[in-house]
Write a structure and sequence with these properties.
- It is a single chain.
- By secondary structure, this protein is mainly α.
- The protein has one domain (5-138).
- The protein has 5 helices and no strands.
- The radius of gyration is 17 Å and the shape is elongated.
Length: 143
C-alpha cells in the first residue's frame, strides 16, 4: 500500500494538529494543577519546567511535520528520516507523559483530572508517533 501525495500531506497536517492539541491540553489541563501542587509543596517546581519542555518539543515536532508536509515533493531519504526522528521524539514525549501520569496518580483528588489528561495525551502521542513513522514508509516513491 502506498499513499498518494494529497493523502500523505493531509495525514501529516492531521498528525501535526494532534501533536499541537496535546501541547495545548498540557498547557491548559495540566500546568495549572501542577503549579498548584508545587505551591503546596507536594511536587517540585522542576515538574512545571519539565512540562514546558514537553510542550516546546511537541510544538517543534508539529512544526517539523508542517514543514515536511508543505516542502516535500517526493519521497527521499531525508523526508523518511525526518518522519522516523519526529515519530520517535513524539513517542518518547508520550512515554514521559505516561510516567508523569503514573506519578501523579497517587496525589489524590486534586490531581485526578490532570492525571486523566496526562494519560489521554500520552496515548495520543504514542499512537501519533507510530503513525508518523509508518506514514514515512508508506509514501509513494513515484511522485
Amino acid at each position: 500500500m502506498h499513499l498518494n501525495y494529497p493523502a500523505y500531506r493531509r495525514m501529516l497536517f492531521i498528525y501535526g494538529a494532534i501533536v499541537v492539541a496535546v501541547a495545548l491540553a498540557l498547557a491548559v489541563g495540566v500546568l495549572g494543577a501542577v503549579k498548584e501542587e508545587a505551591a503546596l509543596g507536594a511536587t517540585s517546581e522542576r515538574a512545571v519546567t519539565a512540562f514546558w519542555v514537553n510542550i516546546a518539543m511537541s510544538l517543534l515536532a508539529a512544526g517539523t511535520l508542517f514543514v515536511v508536509a508543505s516542502q516535500s515533493k517526493k519521497r527521499a531519504w531525508i523526508s523518511t528520516s525526518a518522519h522516523v526522528v519526529v515519530g520517535l521524539i513524539v513517542m518518547f514525549l508520550g512515554l514521559a507523559l505516561a510516567d508523569a501520569a503514573s506519578a501523579y496518580q497517587s496525589h489524590g483528588l486534586s490531581m485526578k483530572t490532570a492525571t486523566t489528561v496526562l494519560y489521554v495525551c500520552a496515548a495520543a502521542d504514542l499512537l501519533t508517533g507510530a503513525l508518523i513513522v509508518t506514514t514515512g514508509f508508506l509514501r509513494s516513491k513515484k511522485e
